[in-house]
Amino acid sequence: MMQTKIEFTGPAAMADDGGVNFAARLNGQDIRCHFSEETLQDVDPEDLHGDPLAQFEAHRFRLLAAAEGKILKGLMTEGTVSVYTSDL
Fold first, then answer.
1. What is the pLDDT of residues 15-64, one digit of tens each?
2. List of residues 6+ apart from 1 with CB closer than 8 A
């Protein structure tokens, strides 16, 4: 059985919907992790940063852990794993 190799390469970049995209590689293939604006606000409502990129960086570990969980379950669409509040 092949081992799944996930690399979170970055960088974080603003998405068109006000969320954040983060580049990654899955078994050598480029993929994208997308974190909705709502997810960024809900990850820690007591610790809000005005800027989505600053909010992502402040909670990067938790957000990428949620993305990794979805990747390992195969929950991607067209090379993108989308992380929502319900995934946290």
1. 999 999 999 999 999 999 999 999 999 998 888 777 999 999 999 999 99
2. none
Query: In sequence order, what are the residues at sequence separation of 6 or more whose Cβ sits closer than 8 angstroms to the Cβ of residue 70?
Result: 76, 81, 82, 83, 87
Question: Cβ distance 59 to 43 under 8 Å?
Answer: yes
Confirm whether pTM is higher than 0.85. Answer: yes
**Which tokens is 10 given?**
């970055």
Residue-range definition of the domain harbouring residue 66: 6-87
- Residue ranges in 20-59 assigned as alpha helix (H): 37-42, 52-58
31 - beta bridge partners? 24
For the record, the structure tokens of 79 come out as 């090379």
Split into its structural domains, the chain has a count of: 1
